[in-house]
Each structure stands twice: as C-alpha cells, then as structure tokens.
Fold:
Amino acid sequence: MHFAEALFDHLVDELPMSERHDSWRFHHLGELAVSSGMASIYDPTSGEADDLDVPPGSHRVYVVMDAVPEAAPMALGILLWFGEAPPVVLGEFSGVGVLTHCGVVCLSSSQDNDDALVSGLMRLAGQEIRRRATHGQDRGLLPVFEDACRQYRPDALQPPEESAPGAFRAGWHILSDEGTKTTVIALLDNGEGGSIYPCLDAQGREVAHLVQFETE
Structure:
C-alpha cells in the first residue's frame, strides 16, 4: 500500500492521526490560510518554488513521516486539502515538482513576507540536524544542509536567535507572523526533491495536492 492510500483511509473514515503504521506516521499540522488562490512549496535556500493552485480560504495540512527503526523522522509527503470531500484517489503525476537542495522544504501561502520566518526556521532546522548528527541519526543530511547554506543562505548556519527546545524533533516546525498573516511550515526531507500529485474525491474532483518526496 502506498502511504497516500493509508492517509486517504484515515481522512475518509475520520481515524485518529495518532494511529501508527509500520512504515508511516500521519500528523495533522493545522490549517494554512491562503488569500491569493495560490500556495507555494519551495527550497528555502535557493528559493526554487512551485505554486499550488488552491481556492482562497483556510485549508487543512497533513504530513506523512517515515518510521524507520532507530532513525529520526523524515518527511515522505505533505498534503494540502482544499476541497470539501476527502481525497480517495491519487491522480497522475502532474509533471512538476520542487527541487530541494538543503534537506528542508517549506510550504507557505506566500513567499512575499516570509524571509524572517524562513531565517528562523532554517537556524532551528540546522540545530536539529546537528543534534541528530551527534547521535548518528542525521541520515546524511548534515553535509547536504551545510553545503546548500554556504552557497545560498550562510545566515542559516548561525545558532537560533531564540531557543525553541524540540523544534524539528518530529521532523517539522511551524512559524507564523501575525502582522503579515504569514505562516511557513518547514519539513526535513532527504534533499532529493519532491513530485506534486493531484488528489481526487469519489466524484473525480481535484480536492487536494500531495507532494511526495523522494526516498532514500
């Protein structure tokens, strides 16, 4: 079974996200408010991005993390559900995806006002990746992260300005700015990029986007 099928079963049957599978962990991250009719998923170092067409409104976000024994969690996928009915079928690959160079990928409603949030998230991500490396759990992410940051975003190699114990421990972290109404969701992936798939409801309508990250 593809993890998308298992996630769809959870959404259709309204099963608790805390239910565990042998290979995956599902988490509801809350809602992403979109005013422009478009969300962005992007690499926070190079800025390479792809847009996700969604109607204006607040849309539910779910993440799929892997469950490799004795390893720290890493993202396998993120679902942005914008329709009323739950997704039941994974559509054909859209032909587009997001390139990730640093082992961190961001989802937000806009890249226009996100720089301070992304800067904070990247420093927190670096702190967690280094912590994992000291325990042999970074899964090769540390050199990927540091190389990308040196090239594109050197400030991300600095310690966090504010302490946030546990940030990225589960493989993700979220920061929001009430002033700009901007929220950025950041995930740890393996730095290989992700492919975007449409998700359809029982009537064949597109109701969600799934970004599936390449696995190791």
Q: What stands out?
A: The mean pLDDT is 90. Residues 3-213 form one domain.
